Amino acid sequence: MTATQFSLGGLLRRAGLSTEPERSRSGPCDARIARALAEFRNHGHRSVRMLDLDCADGGRLLRAAEAARALGFVAIEGRGVSLWTGGIRHARRQAELAAHPSTSLAFEIAEPIAALASEHDGAADLIFLSEPMPYPCSPLGAALARLGGRVLAGD
User: What's the predicted TM-score (pTM) here?
Assistant: First the structure.
C-alpha cells in the first residue's frame, strides 16, 4: 500500500479555494527545462529519460521531448502522470500526432507518489514537478531523493 502525498495548496486548488495565481501550478518553465537538457547533453549524454509528475495535458513533456530532439538526443523517453483523465487522453492524442522514431512518450493516470514508487533507482534523468520541492522527510521528498534524477520544481 502506498501513501498518498497531499499538499495544502494542491487540495485548495482542487477544491477551487486557492488564492494562488494559476501560473503557480505550471511547474518549471520551458527555458529551465531547455537549460537542463542542454547541460545534460553537454556532458556527453545521447539519451534522456524524463518523468513529469502531474503533467496535466502533457504539454510540458511534449515540449521537452521536442527540445531534446533539437539538441541532438537520439533516444528520448518520457513518462507523464496525472489524475486528470481528460488531460491524459489529450496528452496521448498529442503524443500520437507528434510521434518521432527517437521518442517514446507514455501518459498514465496515477498519483505522483505511486509513479515514483514504480520507478527504478536512477531511471529518470530529469523529473518535473508542478509544485515547489517537497519537504525532504515527506514521502514524496524521500521518493525523489531515492531516484537521484535532477528535479526541476515549480517556483
Answer: 0.79
